[in-house]
C-alpha cells in the first residue's frame, strides 16, 4: 500500500550547506503529486508477482529561472525520509568525459551516506573486477589498430568486398600486412569488446540494485529509489546526450525512477548541435522519457521577488539614502510589482526582465543623497532601450515619429495605443495624501483641508504612458493627446489646477483620482524637473550592466 507523503515548504530550510527560503511559488503541491505518481510507477505491490518493481524516467521540463533547482533539491531532500535518493548536478560534473563514472560515483557516495556506512564498506562499493570490466569494455582498440596500421577507418576496412581491394595495404613502416590475420584479430577484438561491455553493464545493474536494497533494509526505507539529474541542459552537448544514453541503456534497473530536470527547448538545441539543425530533436528526446511534467513559470511579480534584491526599493532604505522615488511606496514589493507590470506589458522574457529590474535597483543604489526619480519612467525607457535602441534614441531626442515594420511613418502615441491600448494592469501607490500635503490650494478657490487619507491609490499603466510618459517627450508644438480625451484635459495643468480638478471630481473615479495624485506628487517632489537627457544617462549607464546567468543554487 502506497504511503501518503506530505511536504511542507512553508518555512525556510538549510541543508547541505545551502539555505532554501520558504516556498513562495507554492510548488510543494507539485512535488507531492509527482511523488505519489512516481512511487506508483516504480513500485506497486498490487501488480503481479515479479512485476512489482519497474524502471521509470520522468522529464521535469522547466524554463530558466522558474525555480527547478530549488524545486529538485528541496523535493529530493524531503524524500530521503522515505526512499533511497541520489541527486546529481550534471553541470557541475561535466568536466568529466564519462557520464557513467559521474553517475556511479554519485550513486555510491550518496547511498553510502544515506545508509550511514563507512567509505570502505563492502556492501556499497564497486568491486575492482567490475570497474576493470567497465574500463576494458570501452570501444576503440580495433579502430585504433586499423588507423595505426592502415591509416583508414575501420568501417571502410570491414566493408571492403574482397582482399584484392586492400592487397597493397602496408603498415606504418611500409611492410606488407597479412590482411586475413589482421581481419581475424580485429573481428575477435570487436566481439570481445561487445561481450565485455555487456557483461560489465549486467554486473553494474546487479550491484546498483543491491546497493538500493541495502539502503532500504538498513534504514527501513521503501521502494522505489529516486535518482535526480539536474542542469543537464547547461552541459556540453556531447556530455548531455551521453548522460541520456547512459540513463536509458544502462540504468534501466527495476525499482529505480529517474527525474531528469531540463529546459527542454535548450536541451533540443544541444541535441541539434550534435546531430545537425535538421535533426528532429524533440522526437529523439521523447525516446528517453516515459513522460514529461512541465513546471509552469511563476507570474512575473513572484519571479522577480525571487531573483531581485528589493532591499534598496524599501521605504526605509530610500529614507536613509535621502532618495525620493515616484510613485512613493514604503513596501518594496509594491514598487517591484509596479516594475513587473511594465515588464509584463512589454512582454519581456524572464532573463531580460531580471536584467532590467537589476538595472533599476543598480541605478537607485548609485544615486546621491537628495536625488529623485520616476521609477516607472526609468523602467519604461529601459524596456524601450532593450526593445529597440534606435527608437529609444529618437524618444530621448523628442522625435516621436518612426517607421513601423511595414515602412509607414507613425507616431509614438500610435505605437503605445496599439501595444498598450488593451492593457488593464494597474500601478499602485500606498500613500497618505493628507499627511504629504495637508492643505489644497485649488485655482479660483480658497485653501481647503486635504480629506484624502491613507490608502492604496491606483492608475492604469495605459494612462501613465499617455498622461505622463508622452508628456515628457512630446515636442512643445505637439498637443498632448490621451487615450480618452473626453475624460482628461489636454493641457498641462499646474499643481493648483490639479487640486481644483481633484476637489471638483464628482464622479469619484478611482483611476482618475490615482492619476491626479500621481501628477500632484510629480510636481510636489519636483520629479517633473528631471530632464529627458538625465534619464538617457541613467538608462545607458545601467544598460551596460548585463546579467551573468546565476548558479544553480539561485535558480
From TrEMBL:
InterPro entries: KAP_P-loop, P-loop_NTPase. Pfam families: KAP_NTPase. Coiled coil: none annotated. This is KAP NTPase domain-containing protein. Residues 53-306 form the KAP NTPase domain.
Amino acid at each position: 500500500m502506497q504511503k501518503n507523503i506530505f511536504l511542507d515548504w512553508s518555512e525556510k530550510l538549510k541543508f547541505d550547506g545551502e539555505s532554501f527560503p520558504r516556498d513562495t511559488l507554492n510548488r510543494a503541491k507539485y512535488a507531492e503529486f509527482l511523488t505519489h505518481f512516481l512511487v506508483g510507477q516504480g513500485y506497486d505491490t498490487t501488480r503481479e508477482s515479479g512485476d512489482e518493481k519497474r524502471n521509470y524516467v520522468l522529464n521535469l521540463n522547466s524554463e530558466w529561472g522558474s525555480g527547478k533547482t530549488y524545486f529538485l533539491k528541496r523535493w529530493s531532500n524531503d524524500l530521503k525520509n522515505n526512499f533511497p535518493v541520489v541527486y546529481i548536478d550534471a553541470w557541475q560534473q561535466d568536466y568529466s568525459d564519462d557520464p557513467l563514472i559521474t553517475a556511479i560515483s554519485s550513486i555510491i557516495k550518496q547511498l553510502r551516506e544515506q545508509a550511514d556506512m563507512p567509505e570502505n564498506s563492502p556492501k556499497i562499493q564497486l568491486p575492482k573486477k567490475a570497474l576493470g570490466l567497465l574500463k576494458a569494455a570501452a570501444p576503440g582498440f580495433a579502430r585504433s589498430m586499423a588507423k595505426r596500421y592502415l591509416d583508414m577507418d575501420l568501417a571502410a576496412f570491414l566493408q571492403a568486398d574482397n582482399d584484392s581491394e586492400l592487397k597493397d595495404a602496408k603498415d606504418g613502416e611500409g611492410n606488407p600486412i597479412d590482411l586475413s590475420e589482421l581481419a581475424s584479430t580485429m573481428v575477435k577484438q570487436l566481439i570481445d569488446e561487445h561481450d565485455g561491455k555487456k557483461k560489465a553493464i549486467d554486473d553494474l545493474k546487479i550491484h546498483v540494485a543491491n546497493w538500493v536494497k541495502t539502503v532500504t533494509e538498513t534504514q527501513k526505507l521503501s521502494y522505489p529509489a529516486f535518482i535526480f539529474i539536474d542542469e543537464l541542459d547547461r552541459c556540453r552537448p556531447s556530455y548531455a546526450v551521453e548522460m541520456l544514453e547512459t540513463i536509458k541503456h544502462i540504468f534501466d534497473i527495476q525499482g529505480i525512477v529517474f527525474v531528469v530536470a531540463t529546459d527542454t527547448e535548450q536541451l533540443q538545441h544541444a541535441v541539434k548541435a550534435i546531430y545537425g539543425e535538421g535533426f528532429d530533436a524533440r522526437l529523439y528526446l521523447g525516446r528517453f522519457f516515459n513522460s514529461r511534467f512541465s513546471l509552469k513559470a511563476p507570474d512575473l511579480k513572484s519571479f522577480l521577488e525571487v531573483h531581485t534584491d528589493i532591499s534598496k526599493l524599501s521605504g526605509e532604505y530610500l529614507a536613509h539614502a535621502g532618495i525620493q522615488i515616484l510613485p512613493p511606496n514604503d513596501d518594496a514589493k509594491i514598487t517591484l510589482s509596479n516594475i513587473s507590470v511594465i515588464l509584463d506589458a512589454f512582454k519581456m522574457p524572464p532573463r531580460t526582465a531580471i536584467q532590467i529590474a537589476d538595472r533599476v535597483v543598480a541605478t537607485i543604489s548609485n544615486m546621491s543623497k537628495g536625488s529623485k526619480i520616476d521609477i516607472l519612467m526609468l523602467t519604461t525607457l529601459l524596456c524601450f532601450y532593450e526593445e529597440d535602441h534606435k527608437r529609444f534614441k529618437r524618444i530621448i531626442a523628442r522625435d516621436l515619429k518612426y517607421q513601423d515594420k511595414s515602412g509607414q511613418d507613425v507616431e509614438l502615441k500610435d505605437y503605445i495605443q496599439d501595444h498598450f491600448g488593451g492593457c488593464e494592469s494597474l500601478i499602485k501607490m500606498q500613500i497618505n495624501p493628507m499627511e504629504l500635503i495637508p492643505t489644497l490650494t485649488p485655482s479660483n478657490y480658497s485653501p481647503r483641508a486635504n480629506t484624502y487619507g491613507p490608502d492604496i491609490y491606483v492608475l492604469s499603466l495605459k494612462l501613465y504612458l499617455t498622461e505622463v510618459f508622452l508628456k515628457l517627450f512630446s515636442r512643445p508644438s505637439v498637443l498632448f493627446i490621451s487615450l480618452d480625451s473626453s475624460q482628461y484635459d489636454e493641457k498641462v495643468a499646474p499643481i493648483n489646477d490639479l487640486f481644483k480638478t481633484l476637489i471638483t471630481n464628482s464622479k469619484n473615479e478611482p483611476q482618475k483620482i490615482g492619476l491626479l495624485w500621481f501628477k500632484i506628487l510629480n510636481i510636489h517632489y519636483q520629479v517633473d524637473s528631471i530632464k529627458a537627457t538625465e534619464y538617457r544617462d541613467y538608462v545607458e549607464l545601467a544598460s551596460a550592466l548585463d546579467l551573468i546567468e546565476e548558479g544553480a543554487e539561485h535558480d
